[in-house]
Amino acid sequence: EPEVTQTPSHQVTQMGQEVILRCVPISNHLYFYWYRQILGQKVEFLVSFYNNEISEKSEIFDDQFSVERPDGSNFTLKIRSTKLEDSAMYFCASATGIIGEKLFFGSGTQLSVL
Amino acid sequence: SQQGEEDPQALSIQEGENATMNCSYKTSINNLQWYRQNSGRGLVHLILIRSNEREKHSGRLRVTLDTSKKSSSLLITASRAADTASYFCATRGSGGATNKLIFGTGTLLAVQP
Known about the structure:
The complex is a heterodimer of chains A (114) and B (113).
Chain A: E1 5-7, E2 10-13, E3 19-24, E4 31-37, E5 43-50, E6 53-57, E7 65-68, E8 75-79, E9 88-95, E10 104-105, E11 109-113
Parallel strand pairs in A: 2-11
Antiparallel strand pairs in A: 1-3, 3-8, 4-5, 4-9, 5-6, 7-8, 9-10, 9-11
Chain B: E1 5-7, E2 10-14, E3 19-24, E4 29-37, E5 43-50, E6 55-58, E7 61-66, E8 71-76, E9 85-93, E10 102-103, E11 107-112
Parallel strand pairs in B: 2-11
Antiparallel strand pairs in B: 1-3, 3-8, 4-5, 4-9, 6-7, 7-8, 9-10, 9-11
C-alpha cells in the first residue's frame, strides 16, 4: 500500500537554528498537511496545502513557519528560527482530491530544540 | 472552533473484553473519523462516519454518531493485546471549503493479555 514518508525521523537542533522537515506524500494525492503533537498532548493542525498554495493555517503557523512543494514529490515544512516550544513530533499527511475523506499520515519527525 | 474531547482519557481492560471510547464535539460536522496511534508512530485511519449516518461497522469496530448530542462512540469488540494504542476522534467541519481535520484529546487503551 502506498505510504507517506517523512525524513528525518529525528532532528536535534539548537534554539534559533532553521530546520526543514521533509515529506513525500502519496503520489496521486492533492491535499497536503502538517500537524504536530507535543509529547502526551493532542494532535494539532498547522497548515493545509492545495494547488500549490496554503489553503488553511492555524494560529500556531506564524511567520516562523513556511511550507513548500519544490517539485512534484516533496512537501517541506521550514521553521526559520526554532524555539524550545517547537519541540514536538511533526506529522505530514496527504489526502486525495475528494473533500472530506481520510488522511494518510507519515510516521513523523521528532524535533528536539535544545 | 470545533474540538473533539474523548473520554475516558485512559482505559485498561483484559484481552477478550470490549472497549468503548466516546468523543464529543462542538460544532456542525461533515464527517467524523477515528484514528489509531501506536506509541511514537503516525496516525492510522480506522473508520469514517458521515453526518447522515448513525452507525457503521468495520471488522471488530463499531462506530455510532449522534449529531443531536454531538457525540460519537467507538466500540472495539473482543479486544486483543495488539489493540493497545491511543485512539483519536477527528472531525471535519461542514460548509465552506475546509478540508482539515481537528483531532480530539485521545483515549489511551491498554489491553492486558
